[in-house]
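Posting for a labmate who doesn't have an account.
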Amino acid sequence: MRRTLQKITSEIKLLVLDIDGVLTDGGLYYDQNGLVSQRFHVHDGFGLKIAREAGLSLAIVTGRNSLAATARVKDLGIEHYYSGYADKAAAMNLLRKDLGINFDQMAFLGDDWLDAPAMRLVSLPMAVANARPEILKLAAWVSSVPGGQGAVREAVEFLLTSQGLLNEQLRRFSLI
């Protein structure tokens, strides 16, 4: 029996994110000393704060090691950070064991081929609007905006709406 998207989203306890191309626009900015900086969107950061406050657990699995990304993850207060994992399925298995959460309780938001193994494991594979075509085909949900432009915030709001938790967050800010 095939589960509906509503049923799947109602059971999600953990949102796992890629960084490059999801939390960032995918650009790598090198200075004259070879140091890399990256651009993160404040809407995504606020969305992750809202997700945590609503009770959604968060994790990041990324293929690169980046000082900029590590600083942003720390700033966001995300405890479950797996960097330098080109084999994202291996990282997802570690995450599952570390948190004691089944794959059917996880969503993964990605954009490129390295994300495919992780997306195939979870019950809710998600993609940013500008993801590679092969990744868009794997996704059960796709953002309307590109990575680094609020796609993470949109994914959070989608999950919280599906779980009946968004209105509580909107009330906190006198929006309803």
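Reply:
Got it, the structure tokens are right above this. The helical segments are 5-10, 42-53, 67-76, 88-99, 116-121, 133-138, 151-162, 166-172.
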